[in-house]
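Input record (one chain):
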Amino acid sequence: MVDLMTYQEAAKKMTLAEKLGQCFMPAAFINDTEEEVRNIETLIAEHHIGSICFFHSRASAATNFEGKKKVVHNEKSYERLLQLIERYQKAAKYPLLIAIDAEWGLAMRIENTPQYPYALTLGAMQNRADLVFEVGRQIGMDCRKAGIHWNLAPVVDINLNPENPVIGYRSFGADREKVTEYACAYLDGMKSVGILNSVKHFPGHGDTAVDSHLGLPKIDKDQKTLLQQELYPFKKLIAHGVDSVMVGHLAVPALSGGKSISASISKEIITDFLRKELKYKGLIISDALNMHAISKDFSQEGDVEYQAFAAGNDVLCFADNVEAGIKKIMEHAAPHRIESSFERIWKLKQKAFSVDGHDTTIPKETNLNHQLAKESLTFLKGAKKDLDNFRKSGFHYVQFGDAKNNFFASELQSYQSNPNSCVLGIFPPNAKPKGNFGFTDMQIDAINRMVLEKDCVLYLFGNPFFLNLLDWQKAQAVIVVYQDFKEFQEVTLQHFLGKLDAKGKLPVTLNVWQNG
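The corresponding structure, as predicted from the sequence alone:
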């Protein structure tokens, strides 16, 4: 348990500039140079930074979404994270809140740590909010072990656009009720072990086709439609109780007085709508301010930080220009505006630091993924009897893509009895739709030819939206597995052998196949 001043003590003792420093959350990189680490230590000490958000490396961060820099694998990232947290806390005059994006576990940022299924996989489970709670709890416990207080999750965007390049598999699905129910269970799981949450990306990033890391998406819907769709989970979860709301980089003119301005810097959306109309009193955090959706529009250092703060954000995530941002806000913002954000931040710190301490052992995998695999496996086309007849007639196994531990392939390779029937194991290299999920056009054509020319049972170990590239309805049977984890492959084999039923249901809607 960290010894932290009460809010009343801090409000009297700290200067206005120190209080403003608490509003800044610069990025910290686990795999950074010693020079950069020292720079962050200086930044924390001189400007009284309130929180930091950890990323794997500069090459993996939002500004590298074009993939120009190679991400170097580091087996010791977890140990390095622990060292850096200790160093940065020592540099801080006031204890730091440590944040991270761990939507599907610390593995989202750190090698050799437990990885849980994507939200879309969890969304395939039927009436299993109890298991989603357990996922949130396990991720929360893993965060606690590392000294992390704040998991910037869950994503509560409704998955309404199959071309969405940035949300997709990170959403629980297309049904607003399930998204709300499962998000609630996830954050309650984290709350049960004392980890802070952040629902994102307000006012709803699900129905977009532009990657906000690179450009500004726009949603042209009226307010009534937004309240029935995008805003529905946010309203329900705010009423339930959340620690913070993250505002995304997307234009929603119906909420911003007709202006095509990013929500993250819109006073109409943050202060007038979220604060006043939706009556949200908690902490508001911006999405990463270095993302090109907004950063490319501000040439002067400190301008984007000032605009985000003026719009109503309390915490400025991934603020690249701390010194210039503090200077500009101090010059232009009213003192009471700084005080109100400081109060929300400090009270959140009190909540986080009231939890007992952590141990630093590396988190271990549990058998939870095996349960999740059984509950999410989805029989999209066909029936059990189709698989029974298929196995009896003989088949051979064909694979596209690579799996980390290909248990499924190793078990089926010995079946080569019927060249006209095949089990197609598809392992898309990427979870995002850009570039055919990592397959070439030739590979997509080859898969489609097999589906058309042979009797195929297709097992997809990846994002179900990949099926939009296939004439999958021509297959004899289609089963969506969602993940390539060994546990998911083990469950899939049992399903193929007729030893267990598929319980899941596709949580999104696929496009109607149009050949050519």
